[in-house]
Amino acid sequence: MKKIFFCLIAILSLSHCSTKPAKEQSSQLLKFFKEKNYFKLDNLMSEMKFEKNNPGLLLYEATIDNVFNRPEESDRLINTLFEKYRGYFNDTITKDLYDMRFSNAYRLQDYKRACLSDSIIVTDYSHVCDSSEINTRKDDISLFGNIINVPKMQVTMPSDSKIPLKRDIAGLLNVPVRLLNDSVDFVFDTGANISVLIESVAKKYGVRLLAGMARTGTSTSKKVEGHMGLLDLRLGNVEIKDAVFLVLPDSDLTYANGVYIIKGVIGFPIMYALKEFVMTGDKFMTVIQKQENTKERNIAFDGQNILIRVIAQNDTLPFIFDSGNTTTNLGALFFTAYKQEILKKCKKEKVTTAGAGGSEETMAYILDSLVFFAGNTDYTLKSLRIYSDDLSGYERKYLYWNFGQDYINKFSEMKINFASMNIQFSGRIN
Fold it and tell me: What whole-number distance in Å separates Cα of residue 383 and Cα of residue 323?
């Protein structure tokens, strides 16, 4: 949910350490840290000799472990930094270490420690955060504070599971979720930080609602508020107990005057627990019991967001991986990087963006086409929207924006492996 930002002055203060990267490498490492381009950072660190007595390299390695799904290893390095090198870091870096602790705790379902890490940041380090970050962290505290004492989600999968898929009238992929004796279609959304359910469905199927209210952001600038709840469900032969859901009013997920209603959303926590799955077009999803070990890491975690490595404009650009969005969009960071070219070639139009809580109108530039390289594939996307202003606050300002279904559905198969942090596309559809 949050980003990691490191100050130049703090890194330079480590210059008397026994082992140092070359000056050019140090500059690049710092640049990739500040840009939060974890894929470039990973590549550069793989070329260097790791020295456990260099706190700067410990800091980089702790972050790589954090974003590439080694939370226990990341925590171990963070503990070393706090125990041995706390005096080396300014408040900005110390805040970011607590942020990594939050992310690690969230993935390990240690909601008490996640809530504590956010509380420390808000109480002791608000002076190095902007107002939108503090507001988001306060929302997180209310959300995670409601689930501190819930049991950890349990996932039982006796074998590979093949689950049918279908697209709804909005073009989003849906999976049939077994609730009691019924099958209910939920959107399968890699861009959702948390799983969501509407109140009428929660009431019908006996969701165990928890005390207190929780608020979270959406894909637009709007926020939504609801109760946290626990739900038992099945996806094929995968049995999931005590899954955490945010229960929202029906109106927040109702569109076109009731023509289109999203009953529920399978978000990050459940996807993460599945570890590896293959999406075969619009036909079915196969959850793999035994994960494949691959070397290439082309997806990463940033808090609760899934990032995908995109190569475009001869550069490595991090995008949020958002299967719950029908289109790929370019954001303010892309606009800033290529502003002059965009102003010359692109028309500005009024467009409508939609998310939980409703829709809103904004202005965007329309780019005729752009070649994307993602996973092991490439495709030319057309009529891309470029937003010159951030729509989702601080937590996505380091991303070039969202990677959506208009790329994903050009391939008959997509495999996501969270054990190896790898995504692959195959079977190009012309």
Answer: 18
